[in-house]
C-alpha cells in the first residue's frame, strides 16, 4: 500500500512538473513573441544642400594679343633676275616715292640693251636702202622700164624693212625697261619694316625683297580661333591697350577679317582699326585687344556637382515642396567647376547642388542652401 502511494505521488509530481514546464514555455513564447514584434521604423529625413537659381547677365570677355601694323604694306620685289649689288636702306628707314632701295648688277641687262640698240641701227639702215630702191623702181615703172612685178618686189622689201625697224625698236624699249627694273624703287612714302635679301644674294623676279609700311593709318592685327569668329560681329566694345604704353586704352573696331584661316596656325587674321591712336604708338608694338559683348542673353550657371548623369542624359534634382524630382537639362559651356544650363531650368527654382547620387525620385528632404 505504501509502495502504491509512493508511486502515485511520483506520478503527480511528474504531472505537475510537466504542466509547469509547459506553462512556462507558453508564457515564454508569448513574451518572446511580443518582443519580436518591432515598432514601425521611422525613416530619418535627409538634409539636402540646395540653391535657388538666379539668371545672371552673361558678359562675354575675350582678350587677344596683337601687333601694331600699318594698314597698307607694300611687299616690293625686282622684276628681273640678278645679283644684288647695292643696298641704300636699313630697317626703319623713312623713304619717299621714287627712292632707290636696292640695285641689281645690270651688266648683262646693259649688254642686251646695247645689242638691241645695234639691231635698231641696222634695221634703220636697211629701211633707208629699201626706201631708195622703192623710189628708184617706182620711177622706172612709171616710165615703163621695169614690170609691175619687179616694182612690187621692192615695195614688199620696203614694207618688211619698216616692220623690222618697229620690231627692233620694241626690243630696244623692252631692254631699256629691263635696265630700269634693276632698280628697286619705293612706290609710296613710308617706313622700311622688313628686308629679306642682302648684297651679293642672287634673287629671282617676284621674290619679296623689301616691305614698306606706307604712311597713314595704323591698326592692330590679331589671330582669332575659328570658333570665335562669329563672336566678333557681336562685340559691343573693343578696347586696345599697349604693353609699352601704360594706362593708355584706345577704342577700336573690326575692319577686316581674313576669308581663310592661316594654314599653319589655323587661325583667322583680323585687323582692328584704332579710333584715336596715341602718338607714341610705334610699328611692331605689342597690343592687347579686349572684345566685350554686353548684349549676351541671360544664362543660368550651376555647379558641376549638381549634375546627375543618368546614362547619356544630364539631369538635376529639383526641389518642390521638399520633394525631389529628377529633371533632364541641356548643358552649354563649361567653366571653372561650373556649367551653363541652356534648357530645362527656370529662374527661381531650387536644385540640389551636392551629394546628388544619394537621393532618389520622390524623396522628401530638408533643404539647406542659398541663392546661386
UniProtKB/TrEMBL annotation:
Q: Where is the Multidrug resistance protein MdtA-like barrel-sandwich hybrid domain?
A: 78-213
Spell out where the chain crosses the membrane: 12-32
Q: Which InterPro entries match?
A: Beta-barrel_RND_2 (IPR058792), MdtA-like_BSH (IPR058625), MdtA-like_HH (IPR058624), RND_pump_MFP (IPR006143), YknX-like_C (IPR058637)
Q: This protein's superkingdom?
A: Bacteria
This protein's record includes keyword Nucleotide-binding? no
Q: Where is the YknX-like C-terminal permuted SH3-like domain?
A: 299-366
* Limits of the Multidrug resistance protein MdtA-like alpha-helical hairpin domain: 114-182
* An example Gene Ontology CC term for this record: efflux pump complex
Q: Which UniProt keywords apply?
A: Membrane, Transmembrane, Transmembrane helix
Matching Pfam families: Beta-barrel_RND_2, BSH_RND, HH_MFP_RND, YknX_C
Domain CusB-like beta-barrel stretches: 220-293
One MF annotation (Gene Ontology) recorded for this entry: efflux transmembrane transporter activity
The family annotation for this protein states: Belongs to the membrane fusion protein (MFP) (TC 8.A.1) family.
Identify this protein by name. Efflux transporter periplasmic adaptor subunit
Q: Which organism is it from?
A: Anaerosporomusa subterranea
Amino acid at each position: 500500500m505504501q509502495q502504491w502511494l509512493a508511486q502515485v505521488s511520483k506520478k503527480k509530481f511528474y504531472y505537475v512538473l510537466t504542466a509547469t514546464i509547459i506553462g512556462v514555455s507558453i508564457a515564454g513564447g508569448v513574451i518572446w513573441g511580443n518582443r519580436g514584434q518591432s515598432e514601425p521604423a521611422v525613416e530619418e529625413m535627409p538634409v539636402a544642400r540646395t540653391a535657388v537659381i538666379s539668371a545672371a547677365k552673361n558678359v562675354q570677355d575675350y582678350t587677344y594679343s596683337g601687333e601694331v601694323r600699318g594698314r597698307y604694306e607694300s611687299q616690293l620685289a625686282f622684276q628681273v633676275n640678278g645679283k644684288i649689288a647695292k643696298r641704300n636702306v636699313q630697317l626703319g628707314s623713312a623713304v619717299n616715292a621714287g627712292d632707290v632701295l636696292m640695285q641689281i648688277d645690270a651688266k648683262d641687262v646693259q649688254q642686251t640693251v646695247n645689242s638691241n640698240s645695234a639691231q635698231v641701227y641696222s634695221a634703220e639702215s636697211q629701211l633707208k636702202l629699201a626706201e631708195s630702191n622703192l623710189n628708184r623702181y617706182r620711177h622706172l615703172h612709171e616710165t615703163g622700164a621695169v614690170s609691175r612685178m619687179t616694182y612690187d618686189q621692192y615695195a614688199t622689201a620696203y614694207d618688211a624693212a619698216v616692220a623690222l625697224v618697229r620690231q627692233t625698236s620694241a626690243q630696244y624699249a623692252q631692254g631699256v625697261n629691263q635696265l630700269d627694273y634693276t632698280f628697286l624703287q619705293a612706290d609710296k612714302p613710308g617706313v622700311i619694316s622688313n628686308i629679306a635679301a642682302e648684297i651679293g644674294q642672287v634673287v629671282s623676279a617676284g621674290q619679296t625683297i623689301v616691305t614698306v609700311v606706307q604712311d597713314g593709318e595704323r591698326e592692330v592685327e590679331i589671330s582669332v580661333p575659328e570658333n570665335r569668329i562669329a563672336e566678333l560681329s557681336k562685340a559691343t566694345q573693343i578696347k586696345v591697350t599697349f604693353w609699352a604704353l601704360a594706362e593708355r586704352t584706345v577704342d577700336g573696331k573690326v575692319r577686316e577679317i581674313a576669308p581663310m584661316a592661316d594654314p599653319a596656325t589655323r587661325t583667322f587674321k583680323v585687323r582692328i582699326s584704332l579710333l584715336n591712336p596715341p602718338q607714341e604708338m610705334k610699328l611692331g608694338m605689342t597690343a592687347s585687344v579686349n572684345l566685350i559683348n554686353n548684349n549676351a542673353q541671360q544664362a543660368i550657371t550651376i555647379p558641376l556637382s549638381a549634375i546627375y548623369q543618368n546614362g547619356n542624359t544630364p539631369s538635376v534634382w529639383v526641389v518642390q515642396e521638399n520633394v525631389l524630382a529628377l529633371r533632364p537639362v541641356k548643358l552649354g559651356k563649361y567653366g571653372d567647376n561650373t556649367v551653363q544650363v541652356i534648357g530645362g531650368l527656370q529662374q527661381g527654382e531650387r536644385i540640389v547642388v551636392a551629394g546628388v547620387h544619394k537621393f532618389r525620385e520622390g524623396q522628401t528632404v530638408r533643404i539647406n542652401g542659398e541663392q546661386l
